[in-house]
Specification:
By secondary structure, the chain is of the alpha/beta class. It contains nine helices and 18 strands.
Length: 422
């Protein structure tokens, strides 16, 4: 199986900050807290799009960051949530967390969505901290940071275009010219022993996959030569390109070759023979090819589209690719191989926190506790006091003691440093 792979970075937007504000109206002398909450940050969401066939677009852009939520404002006005960032991927794409290898989701259909990184929630405004003990809190939460991760996208490549033809017709030369595939090319038959796949890319959103299979000969449908084993690789392609050797080397007649291959395809599988086809009249750089082309056109010109090319010099190849892009646009999508189960998105929740010693300091790490620190306005005493209460509730004080913390030891969590006081 062939894979196309891309590694990208995704980050949900941070939540907007909560606001500290107080009521200051006429006739309301003792203004209470009046600061609104921040809005939620946007998520990064992968969405299946059957117009896409490969992952090459991710070569142009590797960072996807959703917007942050709007900050809360006075008069209890909440900040607006940010829009999600939708990243389009072809159906068949498997999404994994790069670090853990964990499956985040599997896009199998057009429109299906998988969330890769959620946005942070908005920080709460000071109104939400008012209580019996504190009627006028002068603190608010900062927005929660968005989730971030590196993801690996994998796509099983299914060929859109199959190259068929006699041995030596130039199929491998053609795929090497239009893609990064580098198959063996030689002037003896049956050079290609296994199929090659190549991705043809003509800029963003304009790409497709070509399969080059071993040459076919008469009797291929029943196992002659090598072709039969490989016809199944072109069974699900949407367009076939007949590659013909127009120079008629070794007394070959391109028209006769064409008829033999058509018959073999039909004998193998009727629907394969009925697939849309283009004839790539190859080796037009060689003598004798023009005459043969005239003959071919006279016979097949009314019923078949013939594109003269030279895979060796590149002549006519761009036109062939353009025609293929256009044809693929018109032809409905063939079904994509589906992975059996579609697991739910998994958001990682680690252990609550870990403590280690570093240069005489106690360093505390952990998703949840670091989140609380990130959401605290460390310049605000009230907010810091609240943070300390949260840490106590999470059992951090006891855990520090268990790790040998003594009075006066420095403790660091993210940007926050404090002295341990037992
Ligand atoms: N002059 C000329 N030679 C070509 C052209 N295309 C292919 N050839 C030559 O034809 C020979 C066969 O080319 P391949 O690309 O290996 O042919 P193939 O169809 O893949 O052959 P198999 O793998 O055996 O089925 C090689 O020597 C190529 O260099 C062309 O457009 N012009
Ligand atoms: Mg070959």
């Amino acid at each position: 199986m062939f894979y196309d792979r891309a590694k990208i970075y995704v980050r949900g937007g941070d939540g907007g900050n909560g606001c500290v504000a107080f009521r200051r109206e006429k006739y309301v002398p003792e203004g209470g807290p009046w600061g609104g909450d921040g809005g939620r940050g946007g998520a990064v969401i992968f969405r299946g799009d059957e117009g896409l066939r490969t992952l090459v677009d991710f070569r142009y852009r590797r960072h996807y960051k959703a917007d942050r939520g709007q900050h809360g404002r006075g008069k209890n006005m909440h900040g607006r949530a940010a829009e999600n960032l939708v990243v389009r991927v072809p159906p068949g794409t498997i999404i994994r967390d790069e670090e853990t290898g964990r499956l985040l989701g599997d896009i199998t259909a057009d429109g299906q969505e998988v969330t890769a990184a959620i946005g942070g929630r908005g920080g709460r405004g000071n109104s939400r901290f008012a209580g019996a003990n504190n009627k006028a809190p002068a603190m608010a939460e900062k927005g929660e940071p968005g989730e971030e991760r590196r993801v690996v996208l994998d796509l099983k490549l299914l060929a859109d275009v199959g190259l068929v033809g006699y041995p030596n017709a130039g199929k491998s030369t053609l795929i090497a010219r239009v893609s990064a595939a580098r198959p063996k090319i030689a002037d003896y038959p049956f050079t290609t022993l296994a199929p090659n796949l190549g991705v043809v890319s003509r800029g963003e959103g304009r790409s497709f996959v070509v399969a080059d299979i071993p040459g076919l000969i008469e009797g291929a449908h029943s196992g002659a030569g090598l072709g039969h084993n490989f016809l199944r690789h072109v069974e699900r392609t949407r367009v076939l390109v007949h590659v013909l050797d127009m120079a008629g080397i070794e007394g070959r007649d391109p028209l006769a070759d064409f008829r033999v291959i058509c018959r073999e395809l039909a004998l193998y599988n009727e629907t394969l023979a009925g697939r849309p086809q283009l004839i790539a009249a190859n080796k037009m750089d060689l003598t004798g090819s023009e005459e043969n082309l005239a003959g071919l056109r006279a016979e097949l010109g009314d019923t078949h589209e013939i594109v003269p090319i030279s895979a060796a010099t590149g002549q006519g190849v761009d036109k062939l690719v353009d025609r293929l892009l256009a044809l693929l646009q018109e032809i409905p999508e063939s079904q994509v191989a589906l992975e059996e189960d579609v697991p739910e998105v998994v958001h990682l929740v680690g252990p609550r926190f870990a403590i280690r010693r570093e240069d005489g300091e106690l360093v505390v790490t952990g998703r949840e506790i670091e989140k609380h620190v990130a959401m605290t306005d460390l310049g605000n005493n009230e907010a810091v006091e609240r943070l300390q209460r949260i840490m106590q509730l999470m059992g951090l004080e006891q855990a520090l003691r268990d790790n040998g913390a003594r009075n006066g030891d420095m403790v660091r969590i993210g940007d926050f440093t404090f002295d341990f006081v037992d």
